[in-house]
Design a protein that fits this description.
This protein is α+β, with helices and mostly antiparallel strands. The strands form 11 sheets. Strands 26, 27, 28, 29, 31 and 32 form a 6-stranded mixed β-sheet that branches. The chain has a 5-stranded mixed β-sheet with strand order 24-23-22-30-25, with no helix packed on it. A hairpin with a 4-residue loop joins strand 22 and strand 23. Helix 2 crosses helix 4. It is elongated.
Length: 525
């Protein structure tokens, strides 16, 4: 028994010493570490060193965000982490204080009890950063309330007359700043700008009320859009900016109204159409042509030029004014033309089907849809006696078969005749054996284009009345003989009319009528 007692005492002493050692080790350990079951702001910091806990607690801090809802329902989100900051030293001192408040001698008790601590670190608001975020948002780009703002009608060349009215639904920026700062400080987290009344209107003065009334009348006239489709290929838009230049103004520069509508100045409409004609009509303008032999030639306007477009300016001005006053745009419109050629663009109004007469190379070409289908040597007007065929852009005026050409000192029968301008035409010349080369320099015609009979019969059947004819030549300048350049200008057709007698076949003209006589140019026999 005595032996058993000794053993029990020994075991109990060992256990007592062990537990005492564990206890005092725990006391020593928890002097530097948080006791078991310790929570700070819901974060378990048991058996953690407070130097680590400051990071854990800082990460657990909720950054309070701000949502700003605009009047249209869109929202602007302000991240709290961008506008709030915390003092880490303050957080560390607070955690140290919590650690120091724990009694390490009671660590065993903590094994069975949960100890929770709540610490709200102090937030520091960066008001400059906050307002920078708001300013950079769409709110910063909106018109701001200013009692001095006034509605006005402004004019620019590009847009014409416009109503500039930035007096309504303006953002009161100072009130917005106040609300944002208040929401951030009080941590409300949400602002509704519509409910807060940050959008305000500026009261209308009597002068502004009259201005708005005038604008309603103006807008009725300016709300117009039409596109001119010109024969030369251009599209010209007539809209409010163009109509603005046609409004009648009084001596003070104010709009004139009649029957509740803005008055159109007829003279300004006429000037607009005249400007269109000056810019785009090409009947009386020099023309340019890409030749078959290569290069581009300029063909000056002369009295022989008959091909091109020309508007009826006054008739079109009257029609345009009536359309504007009706407030009914046709969408697209072609102007009224005195003469219209719409085969191509302004720069190349010939299209792809035309006749080219190259005087320099004494050759004629016929293109259909830009493809060469016919060519031949020819003999044009005689240069030596001043009868050179004039450069011009014209067209086939009429066609005739079996015609006698009568002029001073000659009477010539031709099987095929195609008049191109005045008394100049394209026809066969059976009295000639050769064509091309330099014959025209000393033995050319009186101005017409002499063509081999077999070629003329072929071309005659292919050609249609109205087909463009481009006649051109290139003559290098000669210093020693400057008067040569004036020969073309001095060339004149005979004043007297020449009777042409049809001998066998019918004559085809632009109206498809048969004739027995036609006026032509003089021709070399």
């Amino acid at each position: 028994m005595k032996r058993i007692g000794i053993i029990l005492i020994t075991i109990l002493s060992f256990l007592l010493i062990t537990f005492a050692g564990l206890y005092f080790f725990g006391v020593f350990y928890f002097r530097h570490w948080f006791c078991p079951n310790t929570y700070i702001n819901g974060v378990n910091v048991s058996n953690k060193n407070f130097n680590v806990c400051d990071t854990l607690i800082a990460d657990s801090v909720v950054n309070h965000n701000l949502v700003i809802e605009d009047s249209d329902g869109s929202q602007i989100f302000v991240d709290g982490s961008e506008i709030y900051s915390y003092n880490n030293n303050e957080i560390a001192n607070a955690i140290q204080y919590i650690k120091d408040s724990q009694n390490p001698y009671l660590w065993v008790k903590c094994l069975f009890e949960k100890h929770e601590y709540v610490y709200y670190p102090k937030r520091y608001l960066d008001d400059k950063k906050l307002m920078q975020i708001v300013t950079n948002s769409k709110l910063g780009k909106k018109d701001r309330f200013d009692p001095k703002r006034r509605a006005e009608i402004k004019y620019t060349d590009e847009r014409g007359y416009e109503l500039i009215d930035d007096t309504q639904n303006l953002l009161d920026w100072e009130l917005l700043k106040e609300l944002v700062m208040q929401a951030s400080v009080e941590d409300t987290g949400y602002i509704n700008l519509k409910e807060a009344g940050v959008y305000k209107d500026i009261a209308r003065s009597e002068e502004e009320k009259k201005l708005l009334s005038d604008w309603d009348k103006l807008e009725k006239t300016l709300d117009f859009n039409m596109t001119y489709k010109l024969a030369t290929g251009e599209d010209i838009v007539v809209d409010g900016s163009v109509i603005s230049k046609m409004l009648l103004l009084d001596e003070n520069g104010d709009f004139v109204f009649e029957d509740g509508e803005a008055v159109i100045d007829s003279e300004k409409v006429l000037a607009f159409v005249q400007d269109l004609s000056d810019k785009y009509d090409n009947l009386y303008k020099d023309k340019y042509f890409d030749t078959t032999s290569g290069g581009t030639v300029t063909i000056p306007y002369t009295r022989y030029t008959t091909y091109g477009s020309l508007m009826n300016v006054r008739a079109e001005a009257e029609e345009l004014e009536a359309i504007i006053k009706s407030h009914k745009s046709p969408g697209e419109r072609e102007p009224i033309y005195i003469r219209k050629e719409d085969r191509g663009t302004y720069a190349n109004n010939y299209g792809g089907t035309y006749v080219e007469v190259d005087i320099t190379n004494q050759h004629m070409y016929y293109y259909v849809n830009n493809a060469l289908v016919f060519d031949t040597d020819v003999v044009t007007g005689c240069k030596a006696n001043g009868n050179m065929t004039p450069d011009c852009v014209c067209f086939i005026l009429n066609k005739a078969r079996n015609v006698t050409l009568i002029g001073p000192g000659y009477e010539s029968f031709v099987y095929y005749w195609m008049c191109i301008t005045g008394q100049i035409g394209i026809h066969d010349a059976t009295w000639r054996r050769t064509f091309g080369g330099e014959i025209y320099l000393w033995g050319g015609s009186h101005g017409c284009i002499n063509t081999p009979l077999n070629k003329m019969s072929e071309l005659y059947d292919m050609m249609e009345i109205g087909t463009p004819v481009i006649v051109h030549h290139y003559e290098p300048p000669k210093v020693e003989e400057p008067e040569e350049a004036e020969e073309l200008e001095d060339f004149e057709e005979p004043d007297e009319s020449e009777d042409t007698e049809a001998e066998e076949a019918d004559t085809e003209d632009a109206a498809g009528e048969e004739t027995t006589e036609t006026e032509t140019s003089e021709e070399t026999e």
